[in-house]
Amino acid sequence: MNFLRSKLPDTSTSIFTRMSQLAAEHKAINLSQGFPDFDCSPKLISLVERAMRSGQNQYAPMAGVMALREQISAKVEATIGVAYHPETEITITAGATQALFTAMAAVIHPGDEVILFEPAYDAYAPSVRVFGGIPRPVALLAPDFAIDWKAVGELMTPRTRLIIINSPNNPTARVLTGADFEQLSRIVQNRHCFVLSDEVYEHIVYDGITHRSVMHDAELRKRAFIVASFGKLYHSTGWKVGYCIAPETLTREFRKVHQFNVFSVNTPVQHALAGFLHLKDEYLGLGAFFQQKRDLMLDALQATRFGVLPCQGTYFLLADYSSISDLPEHVFCQELTKQYQVATIPVSSFYSQETNQRLVRICFAKQSETMAQAADRLARVSQL
């Protein structure tokens, strides 16, 4: 097949798949891939069963079940104070990654430039390339991963078509501030540039920090796709249901792609989520729920030689192993998995250029017993 021209010649199997496979091979505790090891609410499962038994098993409308879109609209208006019309501005997707992919497909043309901030979710840059776009990464570094907005402004050109942001951020666990959004709004003003805002961890913030959305800024709101995830919201990552919110003009272009990409999403699960969204405490209490887990992991890591960076949001934290080893991050994670049976993710995997800050990402969306067992093993790591 020497006539096959790969659209992603430099892309291989994701680090998440590789580390999970290595964890299974060595019977390691998997703190690498970002999924909970506990189940979702029994109430939600009952609602799915009820929807299935009541015959809600055929194609859903292309844009999503209206009852769910209405509940999302009500939720956004209650929590953010902004109104999006459920008919024309909200689309249900097969997970957040599909929503991100579809939004990029809607606006990126060959040769367009896309600014993204690294360390970045590994789906961003390959998706940009699939549509002929050119990723323009801005490297952020530990310990604060602060954005130099002056440098971002200098990177803007007439070909800049999209800026991708992610807050709360995976993997840095940093939350963008009001000042960050003011700078972003200033940069895009009077430019033909869109914003793609990945907000899947919107309710997972800690220590009294408030999540800010692009929806809070009128300039950003009119040019932004906002992506969210029920998998992150309700501990149900395997169901792959998310949504995209955008102004009507952008939604119209989004749905042109969506209808030929996925068309519609799991019908009974949509009906169940519509019912479950009435229970506001289930998502409003998410920050407190995961802060307990974060604090448990932080306390447990005190008995190890790992240093921990500040964690403002998401269910990940970054650990510094510089007092343990000089190994590159990829090698360190492999050896940690093989020798101590704990799987983590090298933060260098989230950069396009070789970067070694001796950092690993740890997922703490786990049961207390899982975290305690992992911490016991990590406490035995003195040198690698």
From TrEMBL:
Which SUPFAM superfamilies does this UniProt record tie to the protein?
PLP-dependent transferases
GO terms assigned for molecular function: kynurenine-oxoglutarate transaminase activity; pyridoxal phosphate binding
Q: What InterPro entries does the record tag this protein with?
A: Aminotransferase_I/II_large, Kynurenine-oxoglutarate_AT, PyrdxlP-dep_Trfase, PyrdxlP-dep_Trfase_major, PyrdxlP-dep_Trfase_small
Q: One GO cellular component from the entry?
A: cytoplasm
Q: Which UniProt keywords apply?
A: Aminotransferase, Pyridoxal phosphate, Transferase
Cofactor(s) listed: pyridoxal 5'-phosphate
**Aminotransferase class I/classII large domain sequence ranges:** 28-378
Q: Can you tell me which family this protein belongs to?
A: Belongs to the class-I pyridoxal-phosphate-dependent aminotransferase family.
Query: Could you identify this protein by its name?
Result: Methionine aminotransferase
State the organism of origin. Parapedobacter luteus
